[in-house]
Amino acid sequence: MVNKCAAYGCKSGYKSNAAIDAENKVSFHSYPVNDPELCAKWNKANPRRDFIPSRHSKMCSLHFRPLDFVDKYSDTNSTRYKNKTSNSESRIKRELKPGTIPTIFNAPSYASTIEHLPRPTTNLSAACRREGEIKRINELENEFNKSDQIINLSLEEILYRLKKETSAPSGYQYQIFENSLVLYEIHFDNCCPHIKSSITIDEQKNISLFNKGREVSKSFVEGIINKKVDTMNQLLNVMARLKNLQTDHAKVTFDEAKAAAKQQLKCCLGSVDDEKSLFCKIVDMLVIEDAIIIDNNYCVKSHDVKRMIAERFSPGDIRIPHHAVPNRVRIRISTRAFASAESFLAGIRHSTIDPLRV
């Protein structure tokens, strides 16, 4: 039977096209009717409506890509085939690779399909993608940490990076003085300039902090650095923390603490509007000892608290069971973070207690 191409609009196999077929060395390949799944793909790729392939249906080689073929030597003479003594090209036949589908047709673009090779990828699952994202994040973090190191830089290089740093706290000025890098803030008070705070870094990257002429303890920046500045990020954090420091660490006197505690208690009790609120104010104070302890050194006796309550409320105004009124009131205050009696009071912490245990 004469081979004729079953593709839409193809003239291969017809007498009128014999010369072109010979010139292009057109070969014909049968429809894979024995493989229904592959045959359905061939039929879908062929833009020919209502075509039902048979075992005689053929598709010419013009509808396949060159990489779809494989050359095989074929010879019916077993001896000649075994020794392959003949080099005639007529004995080499082109065969389709298994699973090949035709993709080239002389049809409008909307009616022709082109098979795209799948792009190789390693992100086959969500776990692989997450692992890749974590790896990229770790690489970026390591790259950032490496570029952030200043421990091996000279003071001049650190100064240059500080001047280029866009996230540095404002108000600081930088200068190298006597083999040390000095970062300082200048404030004006009544037209008189003074250094509010400063940071000194020596060549070994040791750091010293000063605020209002007094050295600040290293514990102030504990958690940011140990003894030396290793990274630019650490230095910027130290600068920001020192800039936000508004007070020094001087101890307040007993009289200041006592007066401040009394004033704070008056403010607390003065905001009470009814009996229930006053009861909660009293019970919420931590009852432990017979004093209001301030920094473990100073105290205000609890009878002063009772006196202030009596001054604020007359006996006929409130009625509170005697067992529910704390006889001993203690308020813990830390002076390490405050400089004056006014700011000192902001650190008072009230703890809830069980009134039945009073």
TrEMBL record:
Residues 1-105 form the THAP-type domain. InterPro entries: THAP1/10, THAP_Znf. The gene is 20200751. It holds the Pfam family THAP. The keyword Nucleus applies. Belongs to the THAP1 family. Keywords: Cell cycle, Coiled coil, DNA-binding, Metal-binding, Nucleus, Transcription, Transcription regulation, Zinc, Zinc-finger. This is THAP-type domain-containing protein. It is found in: Nucleus, Nucleoplasm.
